[in-house]
Amino acid sequence: MTHTFLYDGDCAFCTKAAQFLEKHVRTTAEVTPWQWADLAGLGVSQAQAEEAVIWVEANYQQAGPDAIAVLLRRAQWYWRPIGWFLSFKLVSKAAWPVYRLISRNRHKLPGGTAACSLPQAERDRLTGR
Fold first, then answer.
1. At residue 19, what are phi and psi to the nearest 5 degrees?
2. Are 75 and 21 in contact (CB under 8 A)?
3. Are 122 and 29 in contact (CB under 8 A)?
4. How far apart are the first and last CA of the chain?
5. Could you count the other beta carbons within 10 Å of the beta carbon of residue 124?
6. What CA–CA distance (Å, rounded) separates 57 from 36?
7. SS3 per-residue string spanning the chain
């Protein structure tokens, strides 16, 4: 199974962050929008995918900053120390509130759009999906 890193492809801020990852962080993962992924095949629910970025590999999943930590640990050698640092329990605990703050306000960040603040069902209704 390929490693997969899921992000919100309807969010411009998230997409820009994923593009940065693809350009600067060589990883073993397929970085893909959750909207284009086979969520059932990956063992991920839509609710989980809407909640946070997700790292998926065989019998193992992480979300939010923990997913980012795994991705960095599986990247080039110079990203790995950051991934290991983010993996420390106290750092991870501190990272979650920061992640949630950014996630809730991503529509206000550079590259963010108003759509970033809407739940997926509302985005689907507006776009006719």
1. -65, -40
2. no
3. no
4. 30
5. 13
6. 17
7. CCEEEEECCCCHHHHHHHHHHHHHCCECEEEEEHHHCCHHHHCCCHHHHHHCCEEEECCEEEEHHHHHHHHHHCECCCCHHHHHHHHCHHHHHHHHHHHHHHHHCHHHCCCCCHHHHCCHHHHHHHHCC
State the maximum Cα–Cα separation within the chain, in Å, rounded to a whole number: 44
Sequence-distant (≥ 6) Cβ neighbours of residue 22 within 8 angstroms: 31
- Six token digits for residue 103: 């996630």
Which residue ranges make up each domain of the chain?
A: 3-124
pLDDT in tens, 74-104: 999 999 999 999 999 999 999 999 999 988 8
Residue 37 and residue 24: Cα distance in Å, rounded? 22
Residue 123 pLDDT grade (very low, low, confident, very high; cuts 50, 70, 90):
very low
Residue recorded with tokens 């309807």:
10
